């Protein structure tokens, strides 16, 4: 029985072998060559269009298979595709594969960069949106609480904190932009520019959004005072400085087709923001000085503000020199106190950073305030009184001597 | 006498030179074999093999086969220089010999059984292999017939 089975199996094996040989014999050489050509062309197309490592790895296996399946027909294929050859075609495929591998590496690196930038943008936008939502909510609450002074004061404090947080966040972002783009080499710039084409939301869009919200914040009526608007101007000054340093490079990177227009757009936003801040700042400053008893001439620009301060101090010094009254001294004390403890101590940093007053301007006013102080200081009458007393004593003594002689 | 001998010798030399000049150039052992058959589309009963630069009308073959038209024909040239021609629906393989400006019938080989369904020629060492891919039948041919 076992022997019979063995024989059957052997017979089947022989039959299968014969059938296999027959199948091999029944092939068409023409079909073999056509199949090779079709497979080759398909592989060329796949290699040329490959965009991922996974695709390439499949293609590599298929090239190996094409070579293995057809190496037995190489002379047939050589004859048909002369002057090309089977080896030449496989070698061509491998060269294309190597080139595609490089391209895919570049594509994948760009994709990674795009994903990285998109994540970064999304995170920044989320944080910005959260800050803006808080700010809007606080502004709405401020409007509703206008009647309740205590509550209003708390809300203004919260609103101010929110603006400070927003400024800090934007400053960090600007610092990051400065670090990244100021020293960026041309190759990195090209790589990012290539990746940026695939970005839905790029850093320029983010900057535009930030600026639009800054304009909105500056225009909002929310009970802010001089210090808040000066802080906004300082933030504008920092933003402008960073943009001057990196704007051109960022525009070339993220708006490669229209860099000049893209840069101009941000410049326009910056101008609009400054105008919105100034629109509130000069009135707020004027009010602050008035509330401290300092009646400055009207001003609507940084230069005019500087001139107003100088004019005021000069005029008051002249008055003090002429009158030297207690009232003048009181006015001087009042101005000096406000100038030193509020303008310089609290606003000084923002005045300089916001390009309202320079350190030189402040120093010049300081000198004038010193002169005013000297002029306003009341002169003492003690010497005059002593002189009169001495004169009276002398006259008295003379009268006494004359009287005694008589 | 001496003059006559000199004349005869001169004539012989001249004849030898003339004979050498008139003998034609001959190249032997030419291998005409086409490595892979040509599958040619028939348009207005004409086929054109651009690869091997041959163009002819197949009407006489169709008449002989008793078929009005075919879509394509299979053509291969043997090492001896004979063209083997057949097509789907044919019962024969036509062996054609190149003549001056024409192709003459060298042989018409009857393929036993039904008409060919998916014929294909393969160049093999010393013969042409005809395969019917539909039935798996294989025939080894040369210009004299089936081997």
Verbal overview:
- The complex is a heterodimer of chains A (406) and B (147).
- With 406 residues, chain A is an all-alpha fold.
- Chain A folds into three domains: 26-102, no CATH class; 155-290, no CATH class; 302-376.
- In chain A, 84% of the residues lie in helices and 0% in strands.
- Residues 1-5 and 7-24 of chain A have low confidence and may be disordered.
- In chain B, a hairpin with a 4-residue loop joins β9 (127-132) and β10 (137-142).
- At the A-B interface, α1, α2 and α4 of A face β8 of B.
Q: Can you tag this structure with a few keywords?
A:
heterodimer, A: about 400 residues, mainly alpha, about 85% helix, disordered N terminus, B: about 150 residues, alpha+beta, four-stranded antiparallel beta sheet, 2 helices, 11 strands, elongated
The share of residues in extended strands of chain A comes to under 5%
Which chain pair shows the most residues in contact? A-B, 13 and 13 residues
Q: What percent of the residues of chain A sit in helical stretches (DSSP H or I)?
A: over 70%
The backbone outline of chain B, from C-alpha atoms, is elongated
Protein structure class of chain B? alpha+beta
In total, the number of strands of chain B is 11
Low-pLDDT segments of chain A: 1-5, 7-24
Number of helices of chain A: 15
Order of helices and strands of chain B: HEEEHEEEEEEEE
